[in-house]
């Protein structure tokens, strides 16, 4: 169970880094956010099902679509909220782990 919890953290960090990468691309980055925002929101919902996942998904979409807010690590914050702040171990069993492919 603990392994799934840390897989969620690793995946969340990767998604946060991808979301922040658009800041490094001048002029094009904000347009990439238009594509990334709905994808990130869907992944948040996949990783954290239920009411809290839906709320986090909407907040992630808003955070990714608004200019200048890409620096906020929404996936990592959700993981910290779920496993550290509210200490919900139930998410270990319910969370859907989806493999992330890194394109090289």
What does this structure look like?
The chain has 104 residues and is mainly alpha-helical. The protein has one domain. The protein contains five helices and no strands. Helix 1 runs antiparallel to helix 2 (29-47), helix 1 packs antiparallel against helix 4 (74-85) and helix 2 packs antiparallel against helix 3. The longest helix has 20 residues, at 2-21. It is elongated, with a radius of gyration of 13 Å. The model is unreliable at 90-94 and 97-104 (pLDDT under 50).
How is the topology of this model organized?
Layout lengths: L1 H20 L7 H19 L3 H15 L8 H12 L5 H4 L10
Helix pairs in contact: 1-2, 1-4, 2-3
What would you say about this model in short?
Helices cover 67% and strands 0% of the residues. The protein is mainly α. It has one domain (2-94).
Features:
104 residues, mainly alpha, 5 helices, 67% helix, disordered C terminus
Uncertain segments are 90-94, 97-104
Mean pLDDT: 83
SSE topology string: HHHHH
Integer-rounded radius of gyration: 13 Å
């Amino acid at each position: 169970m603990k392994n799934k919890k840390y897989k969620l953290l690793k995946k969340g960090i990767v998604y946060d880094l991808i979301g922040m990468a658009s800041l490094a691309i001048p002029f094009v980055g904000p347009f990439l956010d238009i594509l990334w925002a709905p994808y990130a929101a869907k992944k948040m919902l996949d990783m954290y099902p239920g009411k809290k996942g839906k709320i986090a998904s909407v907040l992630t979409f808003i955070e990714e679509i608004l200019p200048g807010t890409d620096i906020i690590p929404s996936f990592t914050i959700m993981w910290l909220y779920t496993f550290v702040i509210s200490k919900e171990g139930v998410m270990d069993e319910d969370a859907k782990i989806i493999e992330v492919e890194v394109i090289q």
